[in-house]
Specification:
Helix content is 74%, strand content 0%. It has 88 residues and is mainly α. The radius of gyration is 33 Å and the shape is elongated.
Length: 88
């Protein structure tokens, strides 16, 4: 039983190490982005990006369906009506 517990503890330690490294990498990336956003060129790029997002959102959203301009649907004639119209 101690062998199983040792392996589980080792696995847990490796998973915690992986999560810690992932969190550190994410925080470093976020700090770098915040520092860049404070620079002059970062502010310019943020404005360009915001404009691009607005345009992209407008392009990708579907236009609303127009309900008032539908063509009236033609009625399908029944078999009796077709038979009556045929020449005798």
């Amino acid at each position: 039983m101690s062998k199983i517990q040792d392996l589980q503890a080792e696995l847990k330690a490796l998973q915690e190490k992986k999560e810690t490294e992932k969190k550190i990498k994410q925080l470093k990336k976020q700090i770098k982005a915040e520092k860049f956003a404070q620079t002059k060129s970062g502010k310019i790029f943020n404005k360009i990006g915001d404009f691009g997002l607005a345009v992209t959102k407008k392009i990708t959203t579907p236009s609303p369906k127009q309900t008032g301009s539908k063509k009236p649907q033609q009625r399908v004639p029944s078999v009796e009506e077709v038979m009556r119209r045929l020449p005798q």
